[in-house]
Design goal:
4-stranded antiparallel beta sheet; disordered C terminus; about 200 residues; 2 domains; alpha+beta
Length: about 200
């Protein structure tokens, strides 16, 4: 699915009219543009998804002041939503967007963002519309989880129905559970880097 198709799936769950594009005028289109990337980030952070996992050797920051007991400072990747661990299980901590560790040339395993706002109107200044990040292939069950979470978020704003929001929230929780179960099946029984929610020391 495209980002627009995921948005329209959410609107379908609300029994609302679909969008022809993110540039449609009106209150609903504005809501979708405002919330879709935010909701996709929430879903990405909810679990250590295989499709959103990346690993990158970090670049050392030699200009920042180091007031910690760690030897090195590294810049986090610009697309890092959440650090999961350093390869080799080296200890680390993150402060103000910088990673501190004693490891040399560390490789960070992290969750990346899967959607972003892009400049669609060509003005070169303001990101206008949501788009799936190039190279990211969101699994169908996760697409449904994002759409369900978006529908739950938009329900009281579009329908003013607390009951519908509650129903959609329950449906979103079910979608998330199914997506996690499927993702867990993609992990070999013996892996080098098991799931680790800890953000270091």
């Amino acid at each position: 699915m495209t980002a627009l198709e995921i948005a329209n799936l959410a609107l379908l769950k609300l029994k609302a009219s679909s969008l022809s594009s993110f540039n449609d005028s009106g209150y609903v289109a504005t809501l979708v543009r405002t919330y879709l990337v935010f909701i996709s980030d929430e879903v990405s952070l909810e679990y250590d998804w295989q499709f959103a996992k990346k690993r990158t050797e970090l670049s050392e920051n030699t200009t920042a002041t180091n007031n910690t007991d760690y030897d090195h400072i590294y810049d986090l990747p610009s697309d890092c939503l959440l650090p999961r661990k350093l390869k080799g299980d080296a200890e680390y901590m993150v402060e103000y967007g910088l990673l501190y560790t004693n490891a040399d040339s560390p490789v960070l395993i992290y969750t990346t963002n899967v959607m972003e706002m892009v400049d669609d109107d060509g003005d070169g200044t303001t990101p206008d519309v949501p788009q799936i990040v190039s190279g990211i292939d969101i699994p169908p069950l996760v697409e449904d989880a994002i759409a369900s979470a978006l529908a739950s978020e938009l329900a009281p704003k579009i329908t003013e129905s607390a009951q519908l929001q509650q129903q959609l929230a329950q449906a979103a929780a079910g979608s998330m559970h199914r997506a996690k179960q499927h993702d867990a099946k993609l992990v070999p029984e013996t892996i080098e880097d098991p799931v680790d929610w800890g953000s270091g020391v």
